Amino acid sequence: MIRGKAFIVLLGILAGLLLMNGFPLSSMLPAAHAATQGAGHLYKGVFVGAFITSSTQSNAYCVEPDGDNPTSEVPPKVMSSLRGYRMQSTGHWVAPYSNERGLMQMNYITSMHGGLALGPGWHDDQAAAVALAIWTIRGAEDAEVAFWVANIRAAAPGHVQDQVDSILAESAAAIVPPVLKAPADPAVVWKTSATGVVDVPAGYQQLRIEAGGRLTGAAPTGVTFDSAAQTATLDSTRAVSLRFETTPDLGSSRLQEVKFSANWTKTGKRWPARIWGYQPAADDADQLLLYGGGSEDFSQSGTWRKTSATSEESRFAPVVRTEVPATRLEKGAPYADRVTFGIAEHSDPWPVYLENGVQKYRPVRATGTLYGPFASRPEESDEAPIDPVPPVAATAEVIAVDGPATYEVEISRDPAANVSGYFTWVWEIDAQSQGPEIQVGAKEEWHLDSRYSFHDRFGIPKETQFSPMEFNITTRLEDAELAPGGKTIDRITLASNGTWLERDGKPVPIIVRASVYETDGNPERAVEPPQDARLLATEKVTVTSSEAPSEIEVVAPFPEEPGRLVDGSLGLTVQACVVAEDQEEGIRELIEESCDDWGIPEESARVVSPQVATVAQETGQVGGRIVDTANVKGPVPEGATLGFTAYLKAEVGAQRFDEHWRPVLSEGESRCAGPKTTLPA
Fold first, then answer.
1. According to the 3-state scheme, what is the secondary structure of 452-467?
2. What is the DSSP letter of 121?
3. 151, 44 contact by CB (below 8 A)
4. In this predicted structure, what is the pLDDT of residue 22?
5. Which domain of life is it from (predicted)?
6. What is the dihedral of CA 265, 271, 274, 277, to 10 degrees?
7. Strand, coil or helix: what is 623?
8. b/e for 623-654, b at 16 or more Cβ within 10 A?
């Protein structure tokens, strides 16, 4: 202590300049010199304030009220307790001081308020307040010290005493270290059976998916993902939401567990019970000066961990929509459909799994039923009819190994069963018919709700196709021989290869083209008529049922050469065809064009003249009547007449007469013949 005007030689050095890695650099200190008074006041002859060390011109404060003055300045050392000392005025021994809170306050006060230089008057006031605050803390455990300090303090102005109280209160609050609490737990929110969001509050530096999943989407601002998308480095000052998905293998159930961890570290400032003490070695009774060692940062870390599995029911809803590649089934073509798999609105995404690091879709099975044949286009309805139950032409199964995509379906048809009619597909997906890729674990763990069932509507136009009618044409002439110009009936029958198609509830009318050709009376059967075949006539007739034949009239031709009637080289044949261009609009596509053969015996006839034989009355009287009887065999042309001509039997040398009974003379002869008479038949 300095009493009156005398100087106290103190050793001191600024702790902040002598610290490196928490230790003073004693070897770097200059030689010892006396300390000098700095900012402060004299109260009752005692200097109350800061001392300036000679080596660094930094402040240090007396920590032994009414102690001896130091004689030289020596290097400081770190102290966590204060020695005992003897007061000068009373000889009272003051016990060593190790109160942790008090040392923490001294550290805070000298560090935050003690670094003053000589200058304006408020510097002196504050330096005095700092010294008095330190003495007050030291005297809290010793009544005589407290009495001595109170006596000095009483000499200080009121505003300095108020400042002492303020510094003491401030330091008492500041030395309470902050409580470093862990940030709030992240929240895992499942959005679907396989995807979710982790909401991470501020305070975390890293989030990691330890197993069962990976991060998805773009990293938010301030966040980076590692290459495996399993670790996110975070900006701890802001909250963030991170999306994730499960990474199951083929044998994983829908309730795939995902393991999360998040690391946090918080730092704070505290004031340790550690000071720098300038303890002279020359005399153990010399005054001890101190300066605060300053605050130190500390940290606390922790890891949040959670294993989570979805509690959501499966909302995966696979559906199919189909469209036949062609509405008309060509002859011999397979039944076909184009099946497109997708998911319904609000469905969970299609479930996937990882195989050798490659993401694959879990295959889904769909079953198709082809109903038919029907006589007319089936009406669209929610369900297939049950009364009567429609016929089934075929069934098919498609396994969607590539997930939501389009798959082609073809089912070959037996050519012998190439029946006509309308056919319509109905497809269904049923959870109970799925394979082990979907049915993993217990039913509640399946990747598709065990109650799920989907089927599309019956009779959808885009899922309906038809096989056209193809006919077996049969014709038969009523007569095998005809006279020239004679008429006969050709009866035409159509036999469909399957169902006779209907329109508006009635059988569609089929127009048959019948072509009559002239023949040589003995035509050779062929698929097509010969190139030089003479077409005599064409008739068209409508047929509406296999059980209801239609008829046409056929007229025999007159020969250009009468001799053909005699030798039988004239005839006719009929060929019947169903041709698209002859049909009504809208019916043309419903048929396959077809013809029967040319020259079929049942469809052919010969054109012949009738055979006449007469039997005359052998004798008669002159002027009397004679009778001649004609027998006619074969067809007789319509409207034909039979005439008789009578001749007088001539004898050699008899007179010849004309039809008027006038004598006729021949050259060089005088023969005669009877007259000719023509009689009606």
1. CEEECCECCHHHEEEE
2. H
3. yes
4. 34
5. Bacteria
6. 140
7. coil
8. eeeeeeeeeeeebeeeeeeeeeeeeeeeeeee
Check residue 563 and give its pLDDT: 62
- The answer to whether 365 and 435 have CB atoms below 8 angstroms apart is yes
What tokens were used for 241? 């939401």
Distance between CA 247 and CA 249 in Å, rounded? 7
Kindly give the interhelix angle for 121-139 and 158-174, rounded to the nearest 10 degrees.
60
Residues in the chain: 681
Task: Assess whether pLDDT exceeds 60 at residue 675.
Answer: no
pLDDT in tens, 181-208: 999 999 999 998 889 999 999 999 999 9
Residue 192 carries which side chain, given as an amino acid letter? T
**Residue 400 · residue 363 · CB < 8 Å:** yes
Which DSSP symbol is given to 481? E
Cα dihedral 453, 459, 465, 471 sign: positive
Q: How far apart are CA 244 and CA 217, in angstroms?
A: 8
Decide: 464 and 327 in contact? Cβ < 8 Å: yes
Which residues neighbour 315 within 8 Å (Cβ) at sequence distance 6 or greater?
A: 192, 193, 346, 347, 348, 449
Token pair for 10: 């103190």
Say which range, 162-176, 237-251, 377-391, 543-557, has the weakest mean pLDDT. 543-557
Structure confidence by residue, pLDDT tens digits, 415-470: 766 689 999 999 999 999 999 999 999 999 999 999 999 999 999 999 999 999 99
What pLDDT score does 27 carry?
33
Residues contacting 465, CB < 8 A, separation 6+: 324, 326, 327, 328, 329, 335, 336, 422, 423, 424
| CA–CA dist 48, 40 (Å, integer) | 6
Rounded Cα gap, residues 615 and 630, in angstroms? 6
Answer whether 0.85 is exceeded by the pTM. Answer: no
- Collapse the DSSP code of 234 into the 3-class scheme (helix H, G, I; strand E, B; otherwise coil) and give the result: coil
User: DSSP string covering 340-357, please?
Assistant: EEEE-TTPPPPPEEEETT
Sign of the dihedral through C-alpha 417, 418, 421, 423? positive
Chain-centre distance for alpha carbon 493: 56
Contact, 365 vs 415, CB < 8 A?
no
CB atoms within 10 A of CB 204: 25
Three-class SS of 140-188? CCCHHHHHHHHHHHHCCCHHHHHHHHHHHHHHHHHCCCCCCCCCCCCEE
Is the CA virtual torsion 202, 294, 129, 50 positive or negative?
negative
* Tokens linked to 249: 């293998």
Amino acid symbol at 542: T
CA atoms of 449 and 430, how far apart (whole Å): 10
How far apart (Å, rounded) are the C-alpha atoms in residues 256 and 351? 12
Nearest to 317, CA basis, from 444, 443, 192, 442: 192
Residue 612 reports pLDDT greater than 90: no
449 exposed, middle or buried (CB, 10 Å; 0-12, 13-18, 19+)? middle
User: Is a pLDDT exceeding 70 seen at residue 73?
Assistant: no
Q: What is the mean pLDDT of residues 551-573?
A: 78
What is the separation of C-alpha 350 from the centre of its chain, rounded to a whole number of angstroms?
6
